[in-house]
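Deliverable D4.2, example record:
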Amino acid sequence: MGGRKEKGLQIERAPWWETKPPSGSTPTTTRWMVAREGEGRLEPLCVRAGLSKVLPVFSFEEEAQMFLHLGGYEQSGWRARESCAGELVSVLMGPCLEVEGVALDPLPEMLENGTIELVAVGRRRFMRQLLEGGASSLVVQARRF
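Output generated by the structure prediction step:
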């Protein structure tokens, strides 16, 4: 760390409540989830986090694809699906009503080692952020369900 100071590098982080998207950009609420067609309707992938179920949601298609590939879900018909805020809220209020949280950009190994809760947020808080249009500024806090 002394090397950084000698080179004149100074790294400061603003508190999360002071961060804003760059001027001119609009926060996006487009996310990616993993789903498959099941009996004529959408079947979202819900995973276990301890005794609770969570819905994995991804910021980018590539993250969802990596989750599918590394987790071995591709062979079972699961696919990455682009989802707007409205669809995610509908999924959480419909087929995923029993889900207690949303895992943001999880890795498959987090399911095995029990660390998925580190990237999880409560379902109500996630939906509230989506409906308020601030999903891109959602701050993940470690929590247990």
